[in-house]
Amino acid sequence: MVPVKIQTLIVSSAPSPSIIVLQPVEEASQNNKFRIVPIWIGVNEATQMGIALEKARFSRPMTHDLFLDALTNLDARIDHVLINEVNGPTFYAKLVLRQHSRLIELDARPSDALALAIRQEAPIYMNEDVLERASFPYVFKSNPDKEAEVEEFRKFVEDLAPEDFDE
């Protein structure tokens, strides 16, 4: 299992998919080369992810907040998320809960699992074989012009297509 972090979230408007971009946490290489893993998600899922990343709070609980409240009342919490499989453009995840010394694995969409992990600051992992099959190289400039770098990255991710994941 490789620890990963959310590099960026690109929210688009329907019918175009939004994209969550993951990056291995401690991956450092020569010439600032890194790997990224883009995951296409729906607009609603991207909105929930954005709410979690921004730590936004509302007067009434959102669905993910309700789920976390239920876990808390059952004396459980999110232990970690594991992105465990990829099949073409479709990713699969396990939401791992801890209730005392017991671990409980739930099959989950990556977008839901990630939105919950962000809210509880739980670690996110990816199976190494998934990282190898689904990642793309990316080079970060050493003295980046932030706006130009973000625009270049968006262009790179927008040019990706689900077919790029086919073996």
Automatic annotation (TrEMBL):
Entry protein name: BFN domain-containing protein
Family annotation (SUPFAM superfamilies): Hypothetical protein TM0160 (SSF103256)
Stretches assigned to the BFN domain: 1-138
